[in-house]
């Protein structure tokens, strides 16, 4: 938006009283962000009558050095450097009253290697700011200098595959159901059947911790019996995500140590444990050759609505820094929120070395990842074998496909459900590699594979036509316009 | 028991024509394809014996299928796999790995349990076949 700097200087700037944020130096339309700046892109919805540039300047101010009134103590500091600078404000396409505000932050505003510090600055204070109706953090550009202060994912996609001896296809998983109520012994039965049938992983749900019906130690013991039996039955490395989420760090470390002693290849934590706890567990995982699975429990409270909160692409970036190996990131075709273009953007943030700007998938900045390990996305929620061609098309090869109901709900039992999923997956990957138009011919490829596999035939019959076609609430603002050439 | 390692172990055993399609896919992606064999199928036996080096700069899947059949002549009752290496930065590891030959009889694995303190357990998995020395297992 065309608007020159209104910054005041000297006496006019520092006289006691209240000044507009844009006059205090938080609006710098001529500012060229430095390579070492952190840049945030906010979607701002100012209250009626509030100038969007003043609103952007206020966000810059309140997420850096400003308070509501002029303070003389600014003059004891290199305050020009420490002020975040809103430098660009654009109207959001097709969304009256909303604006994209670009704000640059100097690297010295942040402690190295601390997501807690980063988030305390960027989202700590501004989201309840009265002159705004709503505010959403859409994307961040993280400079290489900042990324290098983090260790990143403990294991990463490549090493995870090497450890599991599993290449060339998505991994398969299932969440044990029912979520709550199974005893340790019964729980391990589901794990054994699913892994023996052909899955690579089973998974605790986010809220399986240590409840009256199943103490965590019991779960771990029975699950590892199941994992080892299934491994012997198939000759494959198997795993089950043992959820170590607990009320304190001490308790989480205790559970993680027990999982390690029992020989588990993977443990799990929930996003609700908080950023610092996640970073601590990532360090533990790195020290103990453990794959670290993160369930994004709670994220939809702030990621889903387009007008307010934090986009999941930003959460994904923070988690890649924080150092988890797996993260749930949507299925596109399943039961949970997930627009295809937006989901592709999330997956790119997790799996690529470099993300070029791509507005149609919601990526606003070029992002170098400085060889930080890649995170394995996990697709979970309402998916089944009959969608295999679509899943591979949308999500690619480096992903964990989690069929919970789609394994355990099979009419002939859990092993049959697992086998159906594995055969469908291998048949589809084979067809893709052989040059078949697998997306178009998916249903025929599956029908052909089902001729040699009764469980797959039964799965296709039971879940035929199950789809979840609802409009996404979180879709990109920019769409690709077809051009004629 | 059927050893389920590799990308296609849940499909019926692949024909040479089918193996050719997968190898050509790897070659078209600039991956170097290799043939490896073993008589120790433990899930953590990483290093199968190499039937020569990965075939760098080989444009034709037929050459890999030829080498596979040469390997089968000598090790027909071993496990043989085809494995493809991607040297691109950020991966530099295996991209595809699938079994193309199996022993006639696959006796499977034994789980042994070592009961340690409390109710804890130390597990280990052992192939029945590896009780015998290398080369005399299948």
Task: Please render the helix and strand layout as text.
The complex is a heterodimer of chains A (485) and B (138).
Chain A: H1 10-14, H2 21-24, E1 38-46, H3 52-62, H4 79-82, E2 85-91, E3 99-105, H5 115-122, E4 132-141, H6 144-147, H7 156-164, E5 171-175, H8 184-197, E6 201-203, H9 216-234, E7 239-243, H10 249-261, E8 266-270, H11 275-287, E9 291-295, H12 300-303, E10 309-310, H13 312-322, E11 326-328, H14 340-351, E12 354-355, E13 367-368, E14 376-380, H15 388-395, E15 400-402, H16 405-408, H17 414-433, H18 438-450, H19 454-463
Parallel strand pairs in A: 4-10, 5-6, 5-15, 6-7, 7-8, 8-9, 9-11, 11-14, 14-15
Antiparallel strand pairs in A: 1-3, 1-4, 2-3, 12-13
Helix pairs in contact in A: 8-9, 8-17, 13-14, 15-18, 17-18, 17-19, 18-19
Chain B: H1 16-28, E1 32-38, E2 49-50, H2 61-75, E3 79-86, E4 93-101, E5 109-115, E6 121-127
Antiparallel strand pairs in B: 1-2, 1-3, 3-4, 5-6
> Strand order of the main beta sheet of chain A, please?
5-6-7-8-9-11-14-15
Largest beta sheet of chain A, briefly? 8 strands, parallel, barrel
Uncertain runs of chain A are: none
Q: How many strand segments of chain A?
A: 15
Strand order of the largest sheet of chain B: 2-1-3-4
The tally of helices of chain B reads: 2
| Poorly predicted runs of chain B | none
| Most extensive interface | A-B, 40 and 41 residues
Question: Which whole number gives the mean pLDDT of chain B?
Answer: 96
- Roughly how many Å apart are the termini of chain B? 14 Å
Number of helices of chain A: 19
Q: SS-based structural class of chain B?
A: alpha+beta
The major pleated sheet of chain B works out as:
4 strands, antiparallel
Backbone shape of chain B: globular
Query: What is the helical fraction of chain B, as a range of percent?
Result: 10-25%
Rounded Rg of chain B: 17 Å
Q: Concise description?
A:
Chain A has 485 residues and is of the alpha/beta class. Helices cover 38% and strands 15% of the residues of chain A.
């Amino acid at each position: 938006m065309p608007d020159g700097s209104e910054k005041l200087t000297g006496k006019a700037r520092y006289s006691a009283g209240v000044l507009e944020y844009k006059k205090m130096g938080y609006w710098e339309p001529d500012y060229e962000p430095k390579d070492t700046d952190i840049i945030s892109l906010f979607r701002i919805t100012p209250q009626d009558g509030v100038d969007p540039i003043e609103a952007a300047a206020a966000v810059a101010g309140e997420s850096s050095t400003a308070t509501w009134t002029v303070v003389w103590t600014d003059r004891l500091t290199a305050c020009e450097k420490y002020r975040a600078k809103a430098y660009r404000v654009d109207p959001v396409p097709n969304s009256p009253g909303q604006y994209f505000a670009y704000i640059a932050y100097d690297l010295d505003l942040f402690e190295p290697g601390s997501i807690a510090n980063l988030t305390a600055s960027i989202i700590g204070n501004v989201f309840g700011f009265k002159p705004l109706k709503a505010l959403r953090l859409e994307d961040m550009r993280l400079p290489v200098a900042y990324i290098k202060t983090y260790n990143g994912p403990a294991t990463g996609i490549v090493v995870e595959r090497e450890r599991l001896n599993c290449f060339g296809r998505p991994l398969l998983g299932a969440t044990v159901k029912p979520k709550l109520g199974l005893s340790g012994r019964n729980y391990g039965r589901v794990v054994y059947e699913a892994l023996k049938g052909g899955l690579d992983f089973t998974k605790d749900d986010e809220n399986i911790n240590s409840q009256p019906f199943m103490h965590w130690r019991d779960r771990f013991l029975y699950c590892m019996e199941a994992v080892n039996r299934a491994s012997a039955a198939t000759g494959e490395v198997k795993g089950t995500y043992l959820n170590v989420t607990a009320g304190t760090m001490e308790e989480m470390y205790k559970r993680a140590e027990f999982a390690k002693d029992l020989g588990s290849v993977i443990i799990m934590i929930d996003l609700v444990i908080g950023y610092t706890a996640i970073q601590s567990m990532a360090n533990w995982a790195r020290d103990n050759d453990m794959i670290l699975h993160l369930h994004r429990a709670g994220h939809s409270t702030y990621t889903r609505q387009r007008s307010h909160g934090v986009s999941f692409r930003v959460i994904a970036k923070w988690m890649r820094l924080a150092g988890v190996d797996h993260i749930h990131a949507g299925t596109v075709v399943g039961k949970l929120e997930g627009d295809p273009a937006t989901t592709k953007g999330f997956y790119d943030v997790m799996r690529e070395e470099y993300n070029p700007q791509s507005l149609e998938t919601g990526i606003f900045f070029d992002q170098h990842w400085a060889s930080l390990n890649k995170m394995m996305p996990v697709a979970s929620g309402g998916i089944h074998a009959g969608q295999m061609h679509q899943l591979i098309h949308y999500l690619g090869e480096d992903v964990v496909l989690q069929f919970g109901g789609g394994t355990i709900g099979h009419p002939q039992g859990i092993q049959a459900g697992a086998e159906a999923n594995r055969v469908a997956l291998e048949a589809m990957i084979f067809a893709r590699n052989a040059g078949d138009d697998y997306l178009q011919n998916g249903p025929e490829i599956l029908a052909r594979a089902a001729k040699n596999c009764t469980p797959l035939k039964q799965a296709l019959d039971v879940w035929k036509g199950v789809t979840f076609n609802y409009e996404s609430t979180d879709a990109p603002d920019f769409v690709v316009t077809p051009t004629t050439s | 028991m059927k050893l389920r390692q590799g990308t296609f172990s849940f499909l019926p055993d692949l024909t040479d024509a089918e193996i050719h399609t997968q190898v050509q896919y790897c070659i078209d992606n600039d991956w170097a394809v290799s043939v490896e064999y073993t008589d120790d199928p433990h899930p953590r036996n990483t290093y199968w014996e190499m039937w020569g080096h990965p075939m760098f700069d080989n444009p034709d899947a037929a050459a890999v299928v030829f080498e596979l059949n040469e390997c089968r002549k000598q090790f027909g009752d071993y496990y043989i796999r085809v494995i493809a290496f991607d040297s691109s930065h950020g991966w530099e590891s295996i991209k595809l790995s699938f079994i193309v030959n199996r022993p006639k009889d696959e006796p499977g694995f034994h789980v042994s349990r070592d009961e340690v303190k409390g109710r804890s357990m130390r597990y280990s998995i052992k192939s029945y076949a590896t009780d015998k020395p290398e080369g005399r297992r299948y």
